[in-house]
């Protein structure tokens, strides 16, 4: 778990700093590996070159004194003396500190240490390589049994095996082994390693600086764009919050206006009933009394139109009362949701004479008045439209509670219609129902097609905060 804060702190850094922190160890490690490999190869190359050159030199001087091995198992004393003089009285002896001549079976034929002559040792890698015709060089730590003489004076020497070929045959008749001090090799290798390290370090550093410059420029661009994006996101978030606040205020205002509109309609209904309705009723009663007195009068006297006037007054009074009753919402404040739905269905059945199948669940919830008003008006409008367009065929109403929403479904089996065409033709009924549902934060959907009936699905929240200030 400790790695998580580290990763988070890394993520908070700029891209350039992340590149600086993560790439520098990798580049340093790569530089060390490459430098070490190059240095090792250079050291081996210097050692092989020195060993090879000296080996050719040794072979050219030693080979003539080993030709007796073509027809004998050992070299004679004159050849041993010549080899000793060659290594002690010539410039070659200054470069070679030890020298041996091996027979192919691993026996020492000549050595500066007379105690080694005649001893037989296991054939190791260097001797085997020379017997196959190759030259072998390495830096030896002088730990083998055959290095007892050399180990007494030196800790490490360059050990080289050179094959000695028989004249005219090309056959390896012996192997010359000689040892050189490592001073010259170490100096050349150090110079080569120093130069190689400088080249590798300069190359890696230049590449790193160039990459860092590119990443830094890109990081600055990204940081600038990121800051601009943050500013825009902050502005957008502020606008979204303001928009949500305004939307909530508008919705609450619409909810309150819906309740206020119902109160206004109720007041208009009462005013029509108590004002013009009462006056027209009184006028009708007075006119009926006058009409009774004038029924015996002759039509020639101009009283033949009394019945017509009386019929018109009665019709106008009936229309006025119907308008007044339609404007006023029933007293549903104290009714539960299920009873409000039943009341709307019962009023529709009483006015239309149609039968509506009901599937209404009892809803136990702290419902609010705007929800009851919307439920009554939506059922009133939906059933009225269904009766008008479908002749009341197969009318059904379903009301149930799902979570915190009230689900309403109004169904008929009439001729159906195309909702898209209906909306283009200015169908205000569907539009009004949709607006009434969405004002409360609900939804409204219509599914209908010709000859397949109509299904209206409405969802309303059970509780609407309509009393808060806007």
Q: How do the helices and strands line up, and which of them pair or pack?
A:
Blueprint: H1 3-12, H2 15-62, H3 77-88, H4 92-95, E1 98-102, E2 108-111, H5 125-131, E3 136-140, H6 148-151, E4 157-165, E5 172-180, H7 183-293, H8 306-327, H9 337-352, E6 357-360, H10 369-390, E7 396-402, E8 405-412, H11 419-424, H12 428-439, E9 443-448, E10 454-461
Parallel strand pairs: 6-7
Antiparallel strand pairs: 1-2, 1-5, 3-4, 4-5, 7-8, 8-10, 9-10
Helix pairs in contact: 2-7, 7-8, 9-10, 10-12
Describe this structure in words.
This protein is an alpha+beta fold and 470 residues long. Among the domains are: 15-181, 2-Layer Sandwich (Beta-Lactamase); 333-461, Histidine kinase-like ATPase, C-terminal domain (Heat Shock Protein 90). Helices cover 58% and strands 14% of the residues. The protein has twelve helices and ten strands. The protein has helices spanning 3-12, 15-62, 77-88, 92-95, 125-131, 148-151, 183-293, 306-327, 337-352, 369-390, 419-424, 428-439; strands spanning 98-102, 108-111, 136-140, 157-165, 172-180, 357-360, 396-402, 405-412, 443-448, 454-461. The chain has a five-stranded antiparallel beta sheet. A five-stranded mixed beta sheet has the order 6-7-8-10-9. Strand 7 and strand 8 (405-412) form a beta hairpin. The radius of gyration is 58 Å and the shape is rod-shaped.
